[in-house]
Amino acid sequence: MDKPYSPGLEGIIAGESSICEVDEETGNMTYWGYDLEELAERASFEEVIYLLLKGDLPNRQQLDVFSNELCKNRTIPTSLFDLYKTFPYKTDPMDILRTYVSIVGIHDPETCDTSPEGLKRKALRLTAQIPTMIASIYRLRGGMTIFEPKAGVSHVENFFAMLTGNLPDPLVEKAMNVSLILYAEHEFNASTFSARVTASTLSDFYSAMTSSIGTLKGSLHGGANERVMEMLLQIGEESKAEKWIRNALAKKQRIPGFGHRVYKNGDARSRVIERYCKALGEKTGQTKWYNMSKTIERVVKEEKGFFPNLDFYSASTYYMVGLPIPLYTPIFVMSRVVGWAAHIIEQQSNNRLIRPRSVYIGPSSKPFVSLEQR
After folding, report:
1. What CATH number labels 224-320?
2. What residues act catalytically?
3. Which residues lie across from 22 on neighbouring strands?
């Protein structure tokens, strides 16, 4: 089979999409033609959910109706809490979340509805439910009382209220709103491609979602911001950062939060979240995390020419707003669920089964030997 092969499908065009455009040279992105940095700074996450699912930004009336629907769909089946009690204590939160999404699909009477409007309704419900799932996992693991979803507040405010019992202050809410928008969509990344492959078989919405969550759990896709924060905690002090990172590079250790398969000159999303990392450090008196990160960025650029990606400054941003490190990847799901949904809808609206070929490199012409003679 004399056809070109690219390991990891690097550089291979696998389809067409109207949802997201990534500029390899500048690192800039658009969602349905809207500049991502402008969306992050000026829009709410609810507006971006609407945009990704429907293809354009809502007006005030549309947003109010849509936000109200999100609010009404935040509850999850109470059977999930009983199910949690059957899991081993150290079960990965991503495994629990994947299982929860699968169970919610069983409860959804529209599970088999693959119409565009049916898919959008399911996407809205699951987007509303994911924060409730994450908060309940955290609180059940800590032996704490589960808080009910809070009416009349934003997506971000509700998540913090369910997680901690308190509403976030304005800077924390803004930083998290920006983070969710930046993480919401990223073209044909691994987990989105998993969603599209599953959707292309005409399987149901929740099967495609569980495929995505399972893919995101992998250490080469999701979880980099967890590893970044673990690295920063291991370094501990600003004065140790430069020596630590130079030693790590000398040992050829992989530095989490740097480099990207697509971007050639840096990830524009990183520049956006960096501003909030700096502002939170100044407000909370935890400037060391930002300062350490800047030192690491400088050294890695000098030594390797690598740029930070979105995960790098997101790590200490999440830490300073009080989010537990094991929840960083589930919170990624809380954002990216919208992008996955948009791609499932797009895939099934103009579907062709995704079935690539492989280059065979195994043995050829092996003679069959009967069982008695082997």
Report:
1. 1.10.230.10
2. 260, 311
3. 29
